[in-house]
């Protein structure tokens, strides 16, 4: 083999090896091409910390309908001015994500005098820093900063369900 031929073969081999290793690097990661559930919330101008940090996976349809699975059901205590609010997240959460709101929500509840299902989470305007949790006719307002980043969630504070 002439030296120029050898170089050509070597180059081909190297190119092939590079392509192969790139393919094996990207292949198992294709589900990760989906934006995270937290990125989805910010796309709709909602703070990422509305969800705990243990999201396992989710599906989101074009009309905004979503299903979301947590690693386990759990609760978070949010400190708001002059008060604390206990919020429980079921393992499976569903709802409809739209601009500034999550409606038809299931799987999230808040403890007031007793546990109430939160059916709507919303903001009035992009620039508002207040987030509302509606449970039927009742609502709670939170400073948006409370949900600035996803918090870890405790299994020990959950209602007996
Ligand atoms: C999410 O993960 C759970 C547990 O691995 C699995 O049963 C479920 O099918 C997954 N859902 C989606 C939408 O990928």
Automatic annotation (TrEMBL):
The keyword Signal applies. It comes from the Eukaryota. This is Lipoprotein. Gene3D superfamilies: At5g01610-like. The keyword Signal applies. InterPro entries: At5g01610-like, DUF538. Residues 1-23 form the signal peptide.
